[in-house]
Amino acid sequence: MNNLVKNFFKFSILIAAMLFCLGFSSPSVGKSTISPNFSQGIDYLRQEKYQEAIVQFTQVINDKSQWMAFAYSNRCLAHLQLNNNQAAKRDCEKALDMNSDNMEAYLNKGLADYRMENYHQSLAAYQEVIKRQKGDYRAYYNQGLVHFQLGNYQQALNSYDQALEIDQDYSLEHKTLIYHDRALAHLKLEDFSRAIANLTHLLILNPKNEQAYYQRGYAYQKSGDHKAAFQDFTEVITLNPQSTNAYINRGISAAILGFQDFAWQNFKIALAQFEEQNNQIGYKQTLKLMLKFKQVTSNSYQPPIG
């Protein structure tokens, strides 16, 4: 039956979290002295009207006013929100050429590079923020995400821990992000007990987090606790009956626990869902898994017909 566990890895997905929220740049002067176009651009950013914001900041830049550096920085942010990452990077670099102390421009440039998989450049941007402004927890957290992508999992953990130490007043969303990403790093390091601890903490904060149940189930399964894995994959299915991979992995744990009929039923549900999704790769992998299941259990189990 242990041969089934090898097939589990094909269905286990580690999902990276998003970077912490971005910030716009604004001069520390009274609103009455700010360029009307600049002020309108900021208002559009707050209203999430990013294309309109770009038009306003472009006008400020074309006017060559004293707000140009801030206009470039905020146009960078608007481009990021529209996933125009190359344009965002160019604008942030322009902003930094004009004002090298603009921490938001470094942070946003880091995100643009991160999205384009320029991880070393992204890391350099966050490290520049940390060098100049050691109390910015966003830079530490985002640095951790870059280290994770580079495969530096222990360094990622160190960065996440520093982010937690700097700011204890996190929102619930930010706390769950950090515990989730610490768990992912521990999983990569095959430190399953610490991964489980972080995911359990996350689920105390947010007991409806489907992703956390799935990944804790993965950790339990990897550590050989198939009863706990079975329970977590059941929670995933309760929260989302369309979570096809959860049926696969619950079936694997059920088979190892001796619940062979139940395992077969889960594999069949997954197979049907993959077919509905027109997911040929998942469908073929599930067929192979079911064949392996029949081979391993041939002496003790005959799958029901139908």
Automatic annotation (TrEMBL):
<dbReference type="InterPro" id="IPR011990">
    <property type="entry name" value="TPR-like_helical_dom_sf"/>
</dbReference>
<dbReference type="InterPro" id="IPR019734">
    <property type="entry name" value="TPR_rpt"/>
</dbReference>
<feature type="signal peptide">
    <location>
        <begin position="1"/>
        <end position="30"/>
    </location>
</feature>
<keyword id="KW-0677">Repeat</keyword>
<keyword id="KW-0802">TPR repeat</keyword>
<feature type="repeat" description="TPR">
    <location>
        <begin position="176"/>
        <end position="209"/>
    </location>
</feature>
<dbReference type="Pfam" id="PF13181">
    <property type="entry name" value="TPR_8"/>
</dbReference>
<keyword id="KW-0732">Signal</keyword>
<dbReference type="Pfam" id="PF00515">
    <property type="entry name" value="TPR_1"/>
</dbReference>
<dbReference type="Pfam" id="PF13432">
    <property type="entry name" value="TPR_16"/>
</dbReference>
<feature type="repeat" description="TPR">
    <location>
        <begin position="210"/>
        <end position="243"/>
    </location>
</feature>
<feature type="repeat" description="TPR">
    <location>
        <begin position="137"/>
        <end position="170"/>
    </location>
</feature>
<protein>
    <submittedName>
        <fullName>TPR repeat:TPR repeat</fullName>
    </submittedName>
</protein>
<dbReference type="InterPro" id="IPR050498">
    <property type="entry name" value="Ycf3"/>
</dbReference>
